[in-house]
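Recap from last week: sequence in, structure out.
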Amino acid sequence: MKRVLALLFILSTGSVFGENIILAVVNNSVITSNFLEPFLFNSKSKESKVDIINQRINIILQLQKAKELNIEASLNDVNLALLEISKSNNIH
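Predicted structure tokens:
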């Protein structure tokens, strides 16, 4: 339902981002147009804009679930993940 509301809202507003508009509310977290504007700026199609909003919704839901389950990443976990990312992108 939240995704449908975000989709309807983004489709109805077009490219008007002069004000900080609420695009979606995920539980108690708000996604605003000002926050997503840098990500949406280069998006040409409405589908890609909806995908960006859906990605942000998924991130918020994952972070909320991790917090609910008391899952925290240690500094070592973060460093290992960054090392894997750099290896997969051939960054040394």
